[in-house]
Amino acid sequence: MEPEIRRCTAPPHELLLLADENEESVADYVDRGECYAALADGEIVGEYILLRTRPFTAEVVSLAVAPARQRQGIGSALLRHAIRTAREAGVRRLEIGTGDSGAGQIALYERMGFVRCGIDRDYFRKYYPAPIVENGVELRDMVRLGMELR
User: Fold this and answer.
1) Which is nearest to 97 in space by CA: 128, 120, 69, 73?
2) CB neighbour burial string for 58-96, b if at least 16 within 10 angstroms, e if fewer
3) Which of 50, 60, 99, 137 falls 20 to 30 Å from 15 in CA-CA distance?
4) Which has the closest alpha carbon to 75: 47, 33, 100?
């Protein structure tokens, strides 16, 4: 069953930090974008922020699903919602980024139609105060993906 997704004025802090561990980074964009939350059984189980970055371009940032609700289609539902919402808002290019060790996230984004378009070398070492380790590997590079919306 598809979760209900609606605009959220106060995204859950723990989900924001699940997607982006850097409080300073989250504080930089949280108020500049539009937050959408996935609800199931009356509770927020996932969220994302749609952030305008350039003319006709937006980025999905801070996409997160509560650990107990992962692998249930909520992330895919949130991405479908983001694509539809961006398209309806006149966005022509939608982008998303993730750490280079996030093979599961990259596979999900590619299944949803995003295409790898670049790498921000040493992104996490430059902009994060402490090393981040995922799947036993230190995050270094940000993998950038995008899709043209028609």
Assistant:
1) 120
2) bbbbbbbbbeebeebebbebbbebbbebbeeeebebbbb
3) 137
4) 47
Residue 150's contacts (CB-CB under 8 Å, 6 or more residues apart) are none
pTM higher than the cut 0.90: yes
- How far is 5 from 81, CA to CA, in rounded Å? 8
Who's near 82: CB < 8 A, 6+ residues apart?
A: 36, 48, 50, 60, 63, 94
